[in-house]
TrEMBL record:
Protein name, as recorded: Nucleoside-diphosphate-sugar epimerase
One matching Pfam family: Epimerase
Coiled coil: none
Gene3D superfamilies attached to this UniProt entry: NAD(P)-binding Rossmann-like Domain
Origin species: Rhizobium lusitanum
NAD-dependent epimerase/dehydratase domain residues: 3-228
InterPro entries: Epimerase_deHydtase (IPR001509), Lipid_A_modif_metabolic_enz (IPR050177), NAD(P)-bd_dom_sf (IPR036291)
Signal peptide: none
Length: 327
């Protein structure tokens, strides 16, 4: 089977390319980082230097050739940034990826979305995929909502959308490293008694979920699936466990939720007044993640595509720090 993977020089895309090659598939990886691309080629992935946020040229389409599957894992992911940047990377980028998939004649398009599209400032336990989408919490979630709608409309590509929750593992340069930096800077706000819970998902489990989507029967087309570890863990436990692995003591400071949210909103407003719009110390979305339970129901993915998360948090954390990735 021939698989094209966008975002191949990123955390998830790179791991997926490796797994597909180990299974004997022909893999074409798309990305902008040519140094990482050379590493992929050493492992047997054919690398094509492409910025999917830009319309693909005829030469790129010709270089890609034909394929069976297109996995779109490229995108801009951040709790803060310009709406225009997210629109270009995540909306235009997804449309360009679908154009490449059509040119390659693929039979399935797998889109990696985000549970941020479902976020609300309230507890949401075991949230299902069919829950109505709220007003987007930020520009990132807005761009992903539009991209999901575009993908679902592309029935000719037999699309499947995956929403993996909080991906971590060896090679993670975002989630756990960002958390460690926040812990090291000073006390973290303890909101609503520290009772919020969430799921984390090891990168290998997400890669396996993508394989399940690739191999799913044609009648599954047009479906959205939550992807997550099967443990709902308290955020406080997650943070303290990660900090302990990094050798840092967590300091907590109890802060009333309304006061914390008002401070974050003010920090965001002040950042928007600055010319370069720097990311504030804390965003409302980040505070919301700390304050409210956000867990996913993965029963549909279990039942319909055979997804079974294998890596529990304790094991995943040991693998991550054993590889020296999160620091």
């Amino acid at each position: 089977m021939r698989v094209i993977v966008s975002g191949a020089t990123g955390f998830l895309g790179g791991r997926l390319c490796t797994l597909l090659r180990e299974l004997g598939h022909d893999v074409v990886g798309l990305g902008r980082n040519t140094d990482t691309g050379r590493d992929l080629e050493t492992g047997g992935t054919r690398f094509v230097s492409v910025d999917v946020s830009q319309s693909p040229s005829e030469s790129v389409l010709k270089e890609l050739g034909s394929a069976d599957i297109f996995v779109h894992a490229a995108g801009l992911s951040s709790a803060w940034g310009l709406r225009e940047a997210f629109q270009q990377a995540n909306v235009a980028g997804t449309r360009h990826a679908m154009a490449m998939a059509r040119a390659a004649g693929v039979r399935r398009f797998v889109f990696i979305s985000s549970p941020s599209v479902t976020f609300r400032f309230c507890d949401q336990a075991d949230l299902r995929e069919d829950a109505p989408l709220p007003k987007p919490v930020n520009a990132y979630a807005y761009s992903k909502q539009i991209a999901e709608s575009d993908v679902l409309a592309a029935s000719d590509l037999s699309p499947i959308i995956l929403r993996p929750r909080a991906i971590y593992g060896p090679g993670d340069v975002a989630l756990l490293p960002r958390l460690i930096r926040a812990v090291a800077k000073g006390p973290l706000p303890l909101l609503r008694g520290g009772r919020a819970s969430t799921n984390l998902t090891h990168v290998d489990d997400v890669a396996q979920a993508i394989l399940c989507a690739i191999e799913a029967p044609p009648q599954i087309a047009g479906r959205i699936y939550n992807i997550a570890g099967d443990e709902a863990l308290p955020l406080r436990l997650i943070i303290e466990s990660v900090a302990a692995k990094a050798g840092i003591a967590v300091r907590w400071q109890t802060v009333p939720w309304p006061l914390a949210l008002s401070a974050a909103r003010l920090a965001e407003a002040m950042a928007r007044l600055q010319r370069d719009r720097p990311e504030p110390v804390i965003t409302a979305y980040a505070l919301g993640i700390l304050a409210f339970t956000q867990t996913l129901d993965i029963s549909a993915a279990r039942r319909e595509i055979g997804f079974r998360p294998q890596i529990r948090f304790a094991e995943g954390l040991a693998r991550t720090f054993g590889g020296g990735a999160a620091r």
